[in-house]
């Protein structure tokens, strides 16, 4: 049995929440520090300032949740997913006719699953809340850390009656182990860099993204969920445009969350007319059929209302320092979303980290009198060594898959290869 330690988790996104669950399950005293207020509070601004995003959940992420020691978690998560068995490519033939072409992901019919990131995150927080050894600290922003003295400092935002009355104060927290899961712009990583010789690479690719919605069909109140979808619910829909693309992922209310990915120059071009007059003709030309699914007024409104966000790819190494800190998820390896693996890889980080921590803790128990900090230090070093090559590989695959999704799926050579693979 692993020794009780104080674990603080920075960031209550999907990865930090799952990491907190693993730590709490092994009996550690867990404190979760999150910059924003509680995600489950309707007044909390969601990440990226939009409703939420739909993600592709795959075996990598499911397996990590399966090992979290909470059978109800996986039951609930699977119940809120929609299987996507392949891509559906949308296009227009030379004669002007619209077509759809299904491309299954797997010859055995296995699927990836569409899930709402916010819903998954809330479920993890609900389970954590029911555990006696877990404490939440929302509206706490990590501002400093000393990884030799195992101390961290947080700025606490306290709500006054109005925005102007908001006060901040600083608190000091000590810990045995800090798990940094505070996303792509990680403050934990920033402080970790002062303690270790970290190699670090950050790339903004020339693509921005913006969200749109395809609304569900208007149906009778007792209609089935499946009858609400206006296009196949069991596919990830792609309108490839070679230099840009539009995708749609099903949601469990019959709608689709859609994303335009395009170079910054194209966004600037579409923004150049404030009336939005360039938007519908652009969609008609490059994403045939979309204006029949999203009325042009909604397209224009979403384009103006929703943020236009950049895409970042980050690689770094090592992920830890001594026995006191390790970074996970986007904090360690933010990647572009085209392989659908950012969150999945982050959840897998958690499973692998705790496998290694538990292995070293068991060895520590066998060696009477061994120092738990030294077993943690060995575990964290092994974690970096094992995880870094895989995380870098997934980052590279994600970058390559942008070309596949927006262009290669259209090429005759690609189709021939797929045909031969499946024959
Ligand atoms: P985050 O979700 O970023 O959470 C970090 C948390 O830390 C936040 O709650 C933040 O408020 C908090 N925080 C930040 N700074 C501090 C601080 N100083 N102190 C305290 N707390 C702090 N992944 C997939 O697996 N499949 C997909 O299909 C997929 N599609 C995507 C589509 C798009 C358009 C995008 C942008 C991403 C997609 N991803 C996908 C990636 C996925 O969203 C991320 O990999 C995942 O959210 C990372 O989780 P995380 O918990 O590591 O970080």
TrEMBL record:
<keyword id="KW-0472">Membrane</keyword>
<keyword id="KW-1133">Transmembrane helix</keyword>
<comment type="function">
    <text>Catalyzes the hydroxylation of L-kynurenine (L-Kyn) to form 3-hydroxy-L-kynurenine (L-3OHKyn). Required for synthesis of quinolinic acid.</text>
</comment>
<keyword id="KW-0496">Mitochondrion</keyword>
<dbReference type="GO" id="GO:0071949">
    <property type="term" value="F:FAD binding"/>
</dbReference>
<keyword id="KW-0560">Oxidoreductase</keyword>
<protein>
    <recommendedName>
        <fullName>Kynurenine 3-monooxygenase</fullName>
        <ecNumber>1.14.13.9</ecNumber>
    </recommendedName>
</protein>
<dbReference type="GO" id="GO:0019805">
    <property type="term" value="P:quinolinate biosynthetic process"/>
</dbReference>
<keyword id="KW-0274">FAD</keyword>
<keyword id="KW-0503">Monooxygenase</keyword>
<comment type="pathway">
    <text>Cofactor biosynthesis; NAD(+) biosynthesis; quinolinate from L-kynurenine: step 1/3.</text>
</comment>
<keyword id="KW-0662">Pyridine nucleotide biosynthesis</keyword>
<dbReference type="GO" id="GO:0004502">
    <property type="term" value="F:kynurenine 3-monooxygenase activity"/>
</dbReference>
<comment type="similarity">
    <text>Belongs to the aromatic-ring hydroxylase family. KMO subfamily.</text>
</comment>
<dbReference type="GO" id="GO:0034354">
    <property type="term" value="P:'de novo' NAD+ biosynthetic process from L-tryptophan"/>
</dbReference>
<keyword id="KW-0812">Transmembrane</keyword>
<keyword id="KW-0521">NADP</keyword>
<dbReference type="GO" id="GO:0043420">
    <property type="term" value="P:anthranilate metabolic process"/>
</dbReference>
<dbReference type="GO" id="GO:0005741">
    <property type="term" value="C:mitochondrial outer membrane"/>
</dbReference>
<dbReference type="GO" id="GO:0006569">
    <property type="term" value="P:L-tryptophan catabolic process"/>
</dbReference>
<dbReference type="GO" id="GO:0070189">
    <property type="term" value="P:kynurenine metabolic process"/>
</dbReference>
<keyword id="KW-0285">Flavoprotein</keyword>
<keyword id="KW-1000">Mitochondrion outer membrane</keyword>
<feature type="domain" description="FAD-binding">
    <location>
        <begin position="6"/>
        <end position="381"/>
    </location>
</feature>
